[in-house]
Design a protein that fits this description.
447 residues; Rieske Iron-sulfur Protein; Naphthalene 1,2-dioxygenase Alpha Subunit, Chain A, domain 1; 11 helices; disordered C terminus; binds FE2/S2 (inorganic) cluster; binds fe (ii) ion
Length: 447
């Protein structure tokens, strides 16, 4: 349970809110490179309560501007994207990437009015298929991009999607660091022992099925929080699934197998009631195979979604809506297309696939969950500690102007999640350290 004041600290992300100010110290990944082309149509997004247009100008550089033209407020979405600027369709005022007015053809040529008018702009940087936006103070020097491995590997090594969820970002984030729900919510009644025994064992499924009440241990780190979920493995060993939470909204979930594909999210607040769940899967050392990509794009044959939304998992693009192409077809207003028959005989929930199951729980908690009425158990330890770490960081910034170290040190983000069997007597943080390090053979892109 959380006091109403602490819940507000955690969930309010608009300009001027302590969490919004904390998030504005960090680069925000929101738009994929392929969503904007030189001199092409502006991409609408909304971040931290602000509507934005993301464009690519003639020189290939991304630009981020507020949509309302400073002349009389018409939307620059309809503007002409030409010659390194966007020209308002109403009276032709033109703005560049830094927000300066480059041309004001409706005023007399001798007027210097154009030098007095600017539009709000934000800085953008692009790396390996992702456009990052810095919404910090325009005078401030932005920090380096965080060296998250999913965005350091070449584009051929990763698969990225987005989906919009109609709830506060923190509900979605909490779902990801809550390792105890997967043995229930995501359970299907297919017997894991029917798989090849070794495959099942390598995948840790056997341990997850046998022990459904993991013990949690949590450690605060310089980048966020390390969350270990311990299950009994053999008589002398434990199976540890280790999840990473990285400031301010990144996660990496534990992988399966020996040649792991790592996955996770950036849960970027659009506003307090909508979140962009940017989902990544990547292999650190090799391109994803066609088979892997096929699985990621289409998930399972029986219509079940995976961790990523499938390519046909979206509504037709919705005009005049931020991120209009990424609104999923399973959502709160259609009860997520729950299949009650499947709930009886095929799976625990009847909700059609992994992200739908997560979203079904998270959107139905209300747009912004009321955390003063919840009852947290020991299995919620990871959530409690992550809330605490974020609330502490917002207070330090608000009350003392102290930023987390992770704002300025991009290399604290060079970590992986892990799923390992360790001897029972081992100290888990130390014993799992080598699995959580990003390793040299990864082809790091320079920025
Ligand atoms: S409203 Fe944009 S130029 Fe007039
Ligand atoms: Fe889940």
């Amino acid at each position: 349970m959380l006091s109403t004041a602490d819940n507000e600290l955690l969930t309010k992300t608009g300009a001027g809110s302590p969490m919004g100010e904390l998030m504005r110290r960090y680069w925000i990944p929101a738009v994929f490179s392929g969503e904007v082309e030189p001199d092409g149509v502006p991409h609408r997004t909304r971040l931290l309560g602000e509507d934005l247009l993301v464009m690519r100008f003639t020189n290939g550089e991304p630009a981020v501007l507020t949509p309302a033209c400073p002349h009389r407020g018409a939307s620059l979405f309809f503007g002409r994207n030409e010659e390194n600027g966007i020209r308002c369709a109403y009276h032709g005022w033109k703005f560049d990437a830094a927000g300066f007015c480059a041309d004001m053809p409706s005023e007399p040529p001798e007027s210097n009015f154009k030098d007095k008018v600017t539009i709000k702009s934000y800085r953008a940087r692009e790396r390996n298929g992702v456009i990052w936006i810095y919404m910090g103070h325009e005078q401030a020097d932005p920090p380096p991009l965080p060296n998250l491995e999913w965005n350091l590997v070449p584009e051929s090594h990763s698969y990225l999607t987005k989906r919009i969820a109609q709830n506060n970002y923190f509900q979605t984030l909490e779902g990801e660091i809550d390792s105890s729900h997967s043995g229930f919510l995501h359970q299907s009644f297919t017997n894991p022992f029917a798989l090849n025994w070794r495959t099942a064992q390598e995948m840790g499924m056997v341990y997850k099925m046998r022990d459904r009440h993991p013990r949690f241990q949590v450690k605060e780190t310089d980048y966020g929080v390390l969350i270990g979920a311990r299950r009994n493995a053999e008589e002398d060993s434990y199976y540890w699934r280790i999840t990473q939470f990285l400031f301010p909204f990144h996660t990496i979930i534990p992988p399966y197998g020996n040649d792991p594909v790592f996955s996770g999210h950036a849960y970027v607040p659009m506003d307090d009631e909508h979140v962009i769940a940017l989902c990544f899967s990547y292999n650190p050392v090799r391109p994803l195979s066609e088979e892997e990509l096929g699985y990621l794009r289409h998930a399972r044959r029986d219509g079940q979604e995976g961790l990523h939304p499938t390519v046909d998992g979206f509504l037709p693009p919705i005009p005049n809506r931020p991120e209009g192409a990424w609104w999923p077809k399973h959502h709160i207003d259609n009860d997520f297309n729950v299949d009650w028959r499947r709930q009886k005989d095929a799976q625990f929930s009847g909700l059609p696939g992994t992200w739908v199951q997560d979203s079904g729980m998270q959107e139905t908690m209300g747009r912004v969950a009321n955390r003063s009425i919840e009852h947290l158990g020991v299995s919620d330890t990871g959530i409690i500690r992550t809330r605490r770490a974020l609330i502490k960081a917002t207070r330090l910034l608000r009350d003392y102007g102290i930023e987390p170290d992770s704002v300025w040190d991009p290399d604290v983000y060079r970590v992986r999640s892990a799923a390992v069997v360790l001897p029972r007597e081992a100290e888990w943080v130390e014993a799992s350290a080598e699995y959580r390090e990003t390793n040299e053979s990864v082809n790091f892109a320079a920025v």
